[in-house]
Amino acid sequence: MQSWHKSALFLSFIFGTALVCPANTVDMPRHITFSDSSHQKELSINVQLMDSVVVTNLTNDKTHYDNSMSIRLFLNGHLTDDFQFSSRVKISTDYTNRYINFNYYNPDEGIPFNKQSENKRTWDLFAANLSYKLKPVTLLAGFDFLEWGPARRNHVILRGERNFNRPWQDSSSRIPDAAPTPYFGYSFTLGPLEYTQYAAKLFEKKGLGKYFHAHRLNMNLPLDITFGISETSLYGTTTEPAGTNPNPDSDSTGREFEWAYTLPFIPYVFQEHLQGDQDNISLAFDLSIRTIPNWEFYGELLWDDMKSPSSMFDDSWWGNKWAATIGVARDNLVIGPVNLDWMFEYTRIEPWVYTHHKGTGYTYASYAQSLGSDLGPNSQEVHTEISATYDFIKATLFFGAVAKDSAFGGNINDLHTPESAMDKKFLNDETTIRYKELGFNVSVTPWDWFSFRCSYTRFFGDYEGYRTYAAGSLQW
């Protein structure tokens, strides 16, 4: 092992870090705050120094050592009670014993980075958002992560910043973080109804437009039941060279932003017809039931280009695409000084979900990552975990079983053509990767200026081996 590996391991287990802060909030002391005398205008600045190490040892591959050192800056505040804003920046330097390929800042390569040497890269990522309550409407804008649905692990609609370790995605030439997107939107409330709408810019190819629209109606029902219905529309300039896509409606074309999608309460599925029936439309439902105190039963269902609800289980047509997550959770079970939380979740994603026959200008992705579950099409996962919290210590034991089909229709960039098979096969035995994972993670926050986290995962099945992780941070 090279000397810097030894240093990285030592420093990371002593001071370690990464992703110890929540995605959208920062629970840190305010050491630098600017405000007027009445505190109607306020700006808080926080800084976080981070270091982490990951050791991965899987069958038929050499042991990988990955070290990441980062600094994060956070700005949060308000100009009035109705005008709130926040932003955060992460600047990282990564070291690895693997070879790092060159990155040319093309979005289809993922989040961009600068290669410094064969084993070193630097990269940065930022997110920002603001909201302004202009009653009765709240205006929304940002360059941030969009997340919808009650799922606790795998969102199939919009996953936001959530990212999980998937062994088949492990690569030194890919930044594992999710990608933010620029957007504007608005929301308003009508009694028990909450309406939210976004229009966003996605990234697939340099200089070519790709756009995303989403609206959601959330209903707060009696007995602490929440039901949501949402639609998404996605379209963009064709990225493939003219004549290379054999689908008759996929000639090379340029697309501009469709302003009609920004209007409220217009069903996208009908609006698309008036615009030439050329966009990628999906319909989604989600449900959360908290009628029993401290229990939640929830689910998400995404319909992607299906003929009808009755065709969900018809495998004779590849276009019957859907994805679902169902789960149950028990929170706040107090036993003496310990607080226990438990959850169980199952996710199923049919073949071809998130793909589109017009090519990558229409896929449900940005920066080469799915906007929905990072499992991708033709996959499933069973996951359960139990957490125990005592004072400033939280320990979690988890178990999961994952299946991912690598055959045609299992990659978000796969292109179905008239020559392709018209039926679909969920998790073909010959091409499906199956593995189980068992592990734990422990997080410790003894002071508001110091955090530490470590985890260990053991893999069984088509992936054999382990992954261990240590992380921590100093913040002020």
Short description:
The protein is mainly beta and 476 residues long. The protein contains two helices and 24 strands.
Order of helices and strands: HEEEEEEEEEEEEEHEEEEEEEEEEE
Low-confidence stretches: 1-26
Shape: globular
Tell me the domain tally: 2
Per DSSP E runs of 2 or more residues, the count of β-strands stands at 24
How many separate helices?
2
CATH domain topology of the largest domain: Porin
What does this structure look like?
35% of the residues are buried. The protein has helices spanning 3-15, 268-274, and strands at residues 32-35, 42-58, 64-80, 83-96, 114-117, 120-134, 137-144, 147-148, 158-159, 181-190, 193-202, 210-221, 225-236, 280-289, 295-304, 321-335, 338-349, 365-366, 369-370, 379-390, 393-405, 432-447, 450-461, 465-475. The chain folds into 2 domains: 1-129 and 465-471, no CATH class; 135-430, Beta Barrel (Porin), CATH 2.40.160.130. With 476 residues, the protein is mainly beta. The radius of gyration is 23 Å and the shape is globular. It is built from 2 helices and 24 strands. Strand 11 and strand 12 (210-221) form a beta hairpin. The strands form 3 sheets. The protein has an 18-stranded antiparallel β-barrel.
Record keyword descriptors for this entry.
476 residues; mainly beta; Porin; 2 domains; 18-stranded antiparallel beta barrel; two-stranded antiparallel sheet; 2 helices; 4% helix; disordered N terminus
